[in-house]
Write a structure and sequence with these properties.
The complex is a heterodimer of chains A (430) and B (509). In chain A, the strands form four sheets. Chain A has a seven-stranded mixed sheet with strand order 6-12-11-10-9-7-8, sandwiched between helices. Chain A folds into two domains: 174 residues, Aspartate Aminotransferase, domain 1 (Alpha-Beta Complex), CATH 3.90.1150; 241 residues, 3-Layer(aba) Sandwich (Aspartate Aminotransferase, domain 2). By secondary structure, chain A is α/β, with parallel strands linked by helices. Chain B is α/β, with parallel strands linked by helices and 509 residues long. Chain B folds into three domains: 212 residues, Aldehyde Dehydrogenase, Chain A, domain 1 (3-Layer(aba) Sandwich), CATH 3.40.605; 184 residues, Aldehyde Dehydrogenase, Chain A, domain 2; 33 residues. In chain B, the strands form three sheets. Chain B has a seven-stranded parallel sheet with strand order 10-11-12-9-8-13-14, sandwiched between helices. In chain B, helix 14 links the parallel strand 13 and strand 14. In chain B, helix 9 crosses helix 10. Chain B is globular, with a radius of gyration of 26 Å. Chain B starts with 13 loop residues before the first helix and ends with a helix. The chains are: A alpha/beta (430), B alpha/beta (509). At the A-B interface, helix 4 and helix 13 of A face helix 1 and helix 16 of B. The complex binds pyridoxal-5'-phosphate (PLP). Pyridoxal-5'-phosphate binds next to helix 6 of chain A.
Amino acid sequence: MYDYGFFSYDSKEDMLERSRAFWNPDKTDFWQDAGIDLVIDRREGYLFWDMAGRRLIDLHLNGGTYNLGHRNPELIATLEQAMQHFDIGNHHFPALARTALAEALVKTASPNMRRVIYGSGGGEAVDIALKTARHTKQRRKIVSIIKAYHGHTGVAVGTGDERFSKLFLSDHPDEFVQVPFNDLNAMEDALRGRDVAGVIMETIPATYGFPLPEPGYLQAVKRLCEEYDTLYIADEVQTGLMRTGEMWGISKAGVEPDIMVIGKGITGGMYPIACVVVSEECSAWLKEDGFGHISTGGGGELGCVVSLKVLEICGRPEVRSMVHYIAERFQQGLRQIQEIYPDWFIGIRQDGVVMGLEFNHPTGAKIVMKHLYAHGVWAIFSTLDPRILQFKPGILLSPELVDEILDRTEVAIGKAYAEFKAGSRQAVTA
Amino acid sequence: MTVIEIDRREPPGAARAAMMLQRAHWAAELFARYDIERVRRILDAVAQAAEAHAERYAEWAVEETGMGVVEHKVIKNVACSRDLWARYRDHDYVSPRTLDDDKVLELPRPAGVVFALTPTTNPIATTYFKVLLALMTRNAIVVSPHPGAKAVCADAVRVLSDAAVQAGAPDGCIQVVEEPSIPLIEALMTDQTTDVIVATGGNAVVRAAYRSGNPAIGVGPGNVPSFLDATADIPAAARLIVESKSFDNSILCTNESAVIVEEEAADQLVRELGRAGAHVCSPEEVELVRERLFPEGRMRLDLIGKDATVLAEEAGLKVAPTTRVIVAPFSLVVPEEPLAREKLFPVLGLVRVPNTRAGISAAQAMLRITGAGHSASIHSTRAQTIMEYGAAVKVLRVSVNVGNSLGSAGVLTNLAPTMTIGTGFYGRSSLGENLEPRHLVNWTRVAYNADRSVPFDDFAGMQPWRLDAVRHASAPAPAAEAAPAVETDLLREEVRRLILEELKELTRQ
Ligand SMILES: Cc1ncc(COP(=O)(O)O)c(C=O)c1O
């Protein structure tokens, strides 16, 4: 009997059964089939425990949501305090916490940024960004990157893989153009008609396995946007908040976007909100019809107070210093592991603590994920390129935990390698 | 108007400060792999930066704390930067060493993160001292200055940190708590990331350090008896005592608290003290001193480190404007006598005793009241007396025929120069010596079989730690840093080749 106070389950099996029955049968089974029988129970710092009591180190962090750790004590204290005075507020009125956070965000962003629009999640924020671009340029077309992921809400879903838009008959191929990452010619071809409202890009595409932008690529895209009169929309949902060693990955790349989307980690998984930071040009609808986008939970003020704290923490010099140490330690440690398995572990993509590990098999990362899980580490493969394991450590890790992660990773990669070898021998003999 | 009163369960700044410790921990991990050349380069730079700012910070410290004498603080600041480094530059707390006869290899292991508390009385000298000691032993250090001197200390730490990082030290290896408070300090002392606390300050802070559950080096208060027997060179002794007692207006904890003089030499001493710049009080004046400088038997804290003329005015004494020390004779060393206790301003007690035995007893009595384990001084030319005195007084250092302020601090003697005087078991401390670099490093002892037939190995020329390319969050590494890696790179290549071959073998089966 697992009694959680608010609800209870007889056993883990019972829980999974009810998950299939009342929640999501396919998703529930997907993980069981992949060898990941995880039901997350207690969480703390960069650790969580499965229902069965197994301790896991979180290297997924829900794409950076737990950048500062699960249930970060500073954020818990902030939220508890905020609840003594605030709730989500009223989205129609000038709001204390929404305004305070907006001002703080604008200060961290590039100098051309002026205002903030709120959503309740990343997808909604991307919708807002795309709608804003369409209003600003009075055009429908949006350019994104093949295999991009910007969320599954109404507009955002069109920018991603058609697997998710076709499912709901929501694909609009005439309005959404996709080009390969790091391909400037394709980008220029897409923009040449001057009929594009905006280009949306993650600074380093997460779900695609964090392929690093080639030097100069992002800046060149920005120049093309200027040349062909379109907007640059930076999706900083996973690359923001110090994960690249700077507050925003796009600022590190030296690009001034017209619109910047922020989600996930901005509330540390405490009380979700998402934010869209826009330039003066992109603020037009906020002056013309401020009710243009309405979201009751968007910018819920409890979330705004937590976000202010997150920004303050991320801005500390101690954090900047630690991100560099952590990134460096991982770089060295992973290289050493790579030297042992050079024909299996074939690539390390890294910018700060944003990392993708590349394996020499079309679904290599799934094998590694399974063995990592068996060895106490939770990291997820890249949905849209399963050769790549997303390796996303937190920015407040201690040296001890980093070393422990590297030890576990080395063993898991070795085991995955053995499985891969056995598999390819089987394939040969079959 | 305050709408929401933030109710803080933890002291303001605690989370941020804990983060400083964590950053220091990262820095310490890297620092522990530095070799002696790198460490020396860093200390050359830091000692130089510290010395260059010695005067500025001396002025600033006097201004901020209202204590002490600028020119004396300059002397201490230089002593704790240039001189300290000169003294230890040839020492090595970094390289492995072997005891060939014992067949033991010794590897230095830094503490890690030093949490250093510095006092308001000697803010800069102590900060310099602890930072230099930490660097010599490859420790990261977080300095928590006394709130009364926080601005000058924070500035000094930043200057030292910049100099260190520029000379190649790991980013974050020297940090400062800018807004110290008692609850914040308690939180940091008990933090698991703190590897050792080095506490210089009041008794409360030192006791808290020992209560923290973390390793701690804290030292007790002083109350220095200075015994003069009839064989002493009285004029010289009087000069030295006035020098020492007026040095930085008595805010070194090694300053003389009371002179105990053999009756035979007493009158001469009183004359010579006067000649050396002291004002010797009449019995009526002593009453005024007790009443006004020690109301209810306690030293007035607001007068710590003030000039003798200021004290005279407070006490209502008429003294010459050149007066440097106020001498207050008293007859009995007992707990209720305030003049028999530590005095962190230039008021010096004076007790006459009939003979050496009585003098030693009086010194013992002073240390029963307070100051056990700290320091004592003697002026004598009779070796037997010096030895008996040393064996009788409950202190762990006795300076002979020198001023004690700088004598017991190791500046005028060959004791280790220090700003932290270990008071040992007598003084409820884990440290019985003057704090020096070796106290911040442990050694791993790699010991071979004692059997003579088992040979020892030759470790000459080997490096125990590899330093992979060092980069910094705030400053790029100098290009020269990459150079010494060649050999190890070759080794790595070799290892890599072997592993590859092994793997090939495996996969061929
Ligand atoms: C880059 C990026 N943008 C947008 C989103 C959508 O965020 P949400 O899931 O909060 O709607 C995600 C979520 O994974 C993301 O990774």
